[in-house]
Amino acid sequence: MTTFDTDMPPMTTSIGRSTADDIWVQGYDLAGELMGEVDFGSVFYLLITGRLPTAGEARIFNAVLVALADHGLTPTALAARLTYTGAPDAIQGAIAAGVLGAGSVFLGVFEDAGRVLTAAGPTPDTGEEELERMAAEIIEDHRGRGARIPGLGHPFHKDGDPRTARLLALAREHDLLGPHTRLMLRVQERATSPSGRQLALNAGGACGALLSDLAIDTAVLRGVAVVSRAAGVVGHLAEEARAPMGRTLWHMAERAATYEARR
């Protein structure tokens, strides 16, 4: 017989439950109130925050999901395609392979930027001078440690990430340009690369700031990015099934790599 430590807190959940006749998600009747009435992004927001978003919040949150869905033949997509080449009977493994690389270089910028901004402590009442001071401290801290500021710079969009411009426009349209995003913009305005070039705010940094303003916990910011990119990975795998390139990539690597014996 299993025994439990009486000092342990009781286990509770508000996410979902099922009865013989109903399925409930965060207090909503899944079939009667959500299906066909609420888009997937809004249900995802509900699962994370415990409430449905306003119309403006839903538009921003869905735009964030769309922004990170795909970015071409990235390492994420290549990892998924190559895994599918070896195990086409287990597409879930290929999807997992595609998103397991979420980290400081790919997809993890959501979380990294959000943590830096949240640690600075901006609130809706934070004034412009205080935001300037916070921005300067963030830049000096990273410069002193020789660390890159998450959310700034992009290997392709050197002169500005088109997704960032659209996200900021939507935030302004719905009056949702909150303190974290305003702080991120001040950091971007002040920060420069080692060569003195001003760094563009990339989509990951913009998304991390906007989601922080939507009260998304920093602990799950990377999870939002993973859900977004998983959709793109499935798209790549659908294409891989009908127009494979995995074996070509494999043979290209074999031909391009030089073997060097080491003893």
TrEMBL record:
Q: What is this protein called?
A: Citryl-CoA lyase
What Gene Ontology molecular function terms does this protein carry?
Answer: lyase activity
Organism for this UniProt entry: Pseudonocardia abyssalis
Higher taxonomy:
Bacteria, Bacillati, Actinomycetota, Actinomycetes, Pseudonocardiales
By its UniProt entry, which InterPro entries does this protein fall under? Citrate_synthase
Q: Which UniProt keywords apply?
A: Lyase, Transferase
Pfam short name (any one): Citrate_synt
Family according to the record: Belongs to the citrate synthase family.
